[in-house]
Design the sequence.
């Protein structure tokens, strides 16, 4: 819900990487993902990238901690694989 007012825009990867390096973007997932993809494209290792829909076993623990702190975390609708 916190991002409901955000727009969606597709940008060329090179522009995003330049923006990350210039400090224009601060979202950690965007910064890490854009640079990982740029590096994988440069060295031909895109097949080794983790799929975007891969399980995230720590997600439930993160949500539990946020719930305990009262951060208003949402509940998962599907079970999360245990580590």
Sequence:
């Amino acid at each position: 819900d916190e991002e409901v007012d955000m727009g969606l825009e597709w940008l060329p990867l090179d522009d995003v990487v330049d923006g990350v390096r210039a400090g224009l973007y601060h979202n950690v997932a965007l910064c890490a993902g854009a640079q990982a993809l740029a590096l994988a494209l440069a060295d031909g290792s895109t097949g080794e990238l983790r799929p975007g829909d891969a399980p995230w076993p720590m997600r439930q623990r993160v949500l539990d901690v946020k719930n305990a702190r009262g951060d208003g975390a949402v509940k998962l609708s599907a079970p999360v694989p245990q580590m």
About this structure: The chain has a mean pLDDT of 83. The longest helix spans residues 28-43.
